């Protein structure tokens, strides 16, 4: 039961980290609950469907359908996160000001919310389909006691969700003035990590060059197998033995988002208040 | 910009990704790998082909070798691994991590 709890907990936490950051980053946007809830629901639904077709996806694209699918949805998420950060760079200031004065949701950010709803869907879909398959395997198995293991799985979902909630509460506890600059960084790191992960998956099946395997080995410090390693992977894209192309994708994504936001931000402030 | 040019050059200099000629075949049944350990030469990329005879879904995974692939009953999947430094690397079934475990030992080529 404990093993079961841990497996599910890990997957939920990985998706939950993304949801927590997105929730903090959309603080104050009108109707964000609808978009985030919708994103989670679509992800859960998609996870069930994905689990159903895992066999077919695996066999697709010369047996590497799973990898290509995972990399593709990660790349979609990277673009959506990027879109949001650039949008925030132009609207973040007025949003923070309105939040401070009115104290509730005021600004319409539908475009950005759509992008983030997609990110949430992707995160839930990715981790969710693994949970569905895992729990399905337990239910179908005749060797182990399915009820206690299922209980472990459900507890894992709650524990993962609770920890993600704490992350969110911790984030919004910081002052509103700094919230958006903190979440902008977290989203940029999230996107960089996903871009690196996508690159690693594609290099893992020899589709793109690796530019060096195992640039360094920090598994003695934080191992990918540890819970800290997994959390850091979800947060900032950490891996104990990165590929060259993975590091390049990580750095390039981070640089693009940070410099892009800087440029847009300075332009929007030099023109005064945006209409 | 110069870095970008350098990157493009580096990409062009790699006509194909690393060759992986060696294929290791594994089976999983009753959540146990057969063989559960094997040797490969260090510094070479290789492929592992796994066929599942299990009744439930497994996830063929290795933190050490950075692969992760779901395998449904009756299916066969292939993953790439390496090049590895000499040493021992572990792989497992993430859905039954206590039962299904195995190791790869990378052997340094003799001088």
Automatic annotation (TrEMBL), chain A:
UniProt cross-references to Pfam families, sorted A to Z: FTR1
Subcellular location field: Membrane
A GO CC term attached to the entry: high-affinity iron permease complex
Membrane-crossing segments per the record: 33-56, 68-92, 113-138, 150-168, 180-205, 243-264
Membrane topology: Multi-pass membrane protein
UniProt main location, coarse: membrane
GO MF, one example: ferrous iron transmembrane transporter activity
Key words of the record: Membrane, Transmembrane, Transmembrane helix
InterPro entries: FTR1/Fip1/EfeU (IPR004923)
Family stated for the protein in its record: Belongs to the oxidase-dependent Fe transporter (OFeT) (TC 9.A.10.1) family.
Protein name, per record: Iron permease
Organism: Pseudomonas fluorescens
Highest classification ranks of the organism: Bacteria, Pseudomonadati, Pseudomonadota, Gammaproteobacteria, Pseudomonadales
UniProtKB/TrEMBL annotation, chain B:
Signal peptide range in chain numbering: 1-20
Domain of life: Bacteria
Keywords from the UniProt entry: Signal
Keyword flag Signal: yes
Family annotation (SUPFAM superfamilies): Cupredoxins
KW Oxidoreductase (keyword) present: no
Protein's name in the database: Cupredoxin domain-containing protein
Organism listed in the record: Pseudomonas fluorescens
């Amino acid at each position: 039961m404990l093993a079961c709890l841990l497996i599910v907990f890990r997957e939920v936490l990985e998706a939950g980290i993304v949801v927590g950051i997105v929730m903090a980053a959309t603080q104050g946007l009108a109707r964000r609950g609808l978009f985030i809830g919708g994103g989670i629901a679509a992800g859960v639904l998609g996870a069930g469907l994905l689990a159903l077709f895992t066999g077919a996806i695996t066999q697709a694209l010369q047996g590497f359908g799973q990898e290509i699918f995972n990399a593709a949805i990660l790349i979609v998420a990277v673009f959506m996160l990027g879109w949001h950060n650039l949008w925030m760079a132009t609207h973040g200031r007025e949003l923070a000001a309105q939040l401070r004065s009115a104290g509730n949701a005021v600004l319409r950010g539908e475009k950005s919310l759509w992008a983030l709803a997609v990110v949430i869907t992707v995160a839930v879909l990715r981790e969710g389909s693994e949970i569905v398959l895992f729990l399905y395997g337990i239910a179908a198995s005749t060797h182990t006691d399915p009820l206690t293991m299922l209980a472990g799985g459900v507890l894992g979902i709650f524990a993962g969700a609770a920890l993600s909630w704490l992350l969110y509460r911790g984030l919004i506890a910081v002052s509103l003035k700094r919230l958006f600059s903190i979440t902008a960084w977290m989203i940029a790191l999230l996107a960089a990590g996903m871009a690196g992960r996508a690159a690693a998956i594609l290099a893992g099946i020899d589709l793109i060059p690796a530019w060096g395997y195992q640039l360094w080995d920090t598994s003695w410090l934080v191992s990918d197998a540890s819970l800290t390693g997994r959390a850091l992977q979800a947060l900032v894209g950490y891996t104990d033995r990165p590929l060259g192309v993975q590091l390049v994708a990580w750095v390039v994504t981070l640089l693009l988002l940070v410099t892009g936001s800087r440029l847009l931000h300075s332009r929007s402030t030099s023109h005064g208040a945006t209409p | 910009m110069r870095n970008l040019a350098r990157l493009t050059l580096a990409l062009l200099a790699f006509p194909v990704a690393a060759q992986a000629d060696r294929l290791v075949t594994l089976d999983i049944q009753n959540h146990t790998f057969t063989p559960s350990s094997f040797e490969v030469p260090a510094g070479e990329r290789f492929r592992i082909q796994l066929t599942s005879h299990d009744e439930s879904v497994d996830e063929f995974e290795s933190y050490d070798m950075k692969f992760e692939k779901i395998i449904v009953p009756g299916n066969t999947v292939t993953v790439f691994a390496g090049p590895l430094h000499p040493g021992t690397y572990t792989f497992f079934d993430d859905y039954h991590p206590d039962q299904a475990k195995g190791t790869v030992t990378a052997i340094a080529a003799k001088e």
